[in-house]
Amino acid sequence: MKNKALIILALVGGAAQAQSNVTIYGIADAALVGESGGAAGHVNKETSGAASASRIGFRGVENLGNDLSAFFTLEAGVKIDTGEIDAAGTIFNRQALVGLKTAAGSVALGRQYTPYHTTLVGVADPFGTGYAGTSKNLFPDSGTNIRNSNAVTYASPNVGGFDVALDYSLGEQTMSSAGRQYGGAVGYTHGPLLVRLAYNAKNTDVVGTATTAAVNHDIGHNTLLAANYDLHFVKLYAAYEVDKGFNAHPLGNPNAYAVKATPSTDSGEVLLGLSAPLGNGTLMASVMHLNDKTKFNQDASSWGIGYLYALSKMTGLYAAYGHISNKNGAGYTVANNTETGTGNTGYNLGIRHAF
To answer: What is 2-354's CATH number, 2.40.160.10, 3.40.80.10, 3.40.50.880, 1.10.260.40?
Structure first.
């Protein structure tokens, strides 16, 4: 696997030298992380990508004429603390796509982000789904809700302030519905206002074998309405989500507490947040509440605060803190961009460099 990774990186690196329209980019992020409140007790560690997942990527565009262009992205996740690929057995696990773009929009095939996740990152969450204050603490931003393989996507141009994104992922199993996922988003931008409505649906049926019967589940649905408004001296954020169905809201770390919680199949989440320039950096804060509408009534509330101090346009130091109050045995954990967390309290002290 290491030799294969080196060969591919060398080939893509050669392409970057041969063609000026290929860009190498990435993020190097590492932090000291502390967690408490779970069955593991006090946990102290060094983590890669607490604010933004560490990565190296290659993207390119070729102009084919007549308003037609081809594009690609190959993006690998890495662990700064160990130097390993962040998902065993993969190379370009974060993004791997190729597509065509015209005046009517772009179509891409491959492993890609879902419209649901990009709405959380770009519209709903002042933390951008990173740091200890991440929306991942109570919103189901994990697994295939973030990105899916075998996906076909469409992104429209902005027309009159409106844009549309569509996503369909083939399950590629003997039972065609198993593993299938689809979703989309509609956005509206007007001056300082940005509003986006996103939807995601996934099928988690299990295909039968010669020795085991097939398992059918209802489809898990996530519907997210998010908005932010930039007042320049402060940017305000708000989001509301409804989750229904099997695996609609899986727990980030189901074994975090001594008594295992039950994942909700009917819940709603609310987020209010802000970001503001402060000194030579940016202050971020949010409060969230999850209403579990099942018979278990496992509600949760959380808050988070963070500060990113800019050493330059590319490099920053950060500190963040998050806390969750779980009710009736709820099992939510303070996460960060790359880890699910081990308890209901956490902090990050780190450095982030983008290139």
So the answer is: 2.40.160.10
